[in-house]
Amino acid sequence: MTHDLDDRMHFAIDLARRAGELGLKYFRDLDNLAVESKGHQDLVSEGDREVELFIRAAIAKAYPQDGIVGEEHAAVTGTTGHVWVIDPIDGTANFVRGIPAWCVVIACARNGETIVGVIHEPSTGETFYGRLGGGAFLNGKPIKASDAASLSEGAVGTGLSNRASTKNVIILISLIMAEGGVFYRNASGALMLAYAASGRLLGYIEEHMNSWDCLAGMLLVEEAGGRVLKADPKTVVSQGTQVIAGGKHIFSRLQLLGESSFLPTR
Q: What is the Cβ-side half-sphere exposure of residue 169, based on CA atoms within 13 angstroms?
């Protein structure tokens, strides 16, 4: 089992980096990039679609019996209990505007439990990765979630969801700042979760995230010694989840902030 997990992790690392190279080709030629917009937060580009097709083809070749769930194309049902959950470009709003804060996200779940997570940021060459029970790493070096116990010791990542109320985020930010903390947002939830796993952020809170944005990062936070709000394995892949994640000493505080800002999701 451990050997299989390692194989899947290394496959995902290599694939995310190759997909990132493809994404960079589009990123470096934005003048010719086709983009569809349904609002600031809801964008899709030719790059998103082509990178996802590239990732899907590689998975279908290496693991033909596994399922695939992605942001831009229809789900593929598998027979093994394994599902690859992918976001070809998380942070599309940044990507299409030339802001170098976007990433390729690849997770693998088994019966609803995430077993492999990779978040690759092509613009910096940083690859965050880990597997269940194997720790979390950044370009080969172990990473560790924050040891901070107070919100005044760093920043908390926050996100906006089309499925959540903007006023709830305003409440959350107000509560963070009332305790001497600051909020951070770079428009890529997956990347902010990677930053929480590596201790750059105290944690991350978002009322609702799709599975392709959060599964990899939530696994990394746990493998880096942090804690996360447990998602329902029966629904998380298809329906997403509320996300609260961070260092083990600050997590209970983050959870209280989330409970004070958001309505319960289940």
A: 21
CB 5 within 8 A of CB 105: no
Asked if 86 contacts 70 with a C-beta cutoff of 8 angstroms, the reply is yes
What are 157's two structure tokens? 């990542």
**Alpha-carbon distance 265 to 242, whole Å?**
7
DSSP-assigned letter for residue 76: B
Token digits of residue 111: 């019966």
Measured distance between the N- and C-terminal CA atoms of the chain, rounded to whole angstroms: 32
Gap between the Cα atoms of 8 and 106, Å rounded: 11
Per the structure block, which two tokens stand in for 188? 């890529």
Higher-confidence residue of 39 and 236: namely 236
pLDDT (tens digit per residue) in 213-266: 999 999 999 999 999 999 999 999 999 999 999 999 999 999 999 988 885 543
Q: Which domains does the chain have, with CATH numbers?
A: 2-142 (3.30.540.10), 151-261 (3.40.190.80)
Beta bridge partners of 158: 205
Whether the pTM exceeds 0.85: the reply is yes
Residues 13 and 118: beta-carbon distance below 8 Å: yes
Select from 164, 150, 222, 234 the least CA-distant residue to 193. Answer: 222
95-130 per-position pLDDT tens digit: 989 999 999 999 999 999 999 999 999 999 999 999
DSSP H helical ranges for 63-136? 92-95
Distance CA 104, CA 16 (A): 6
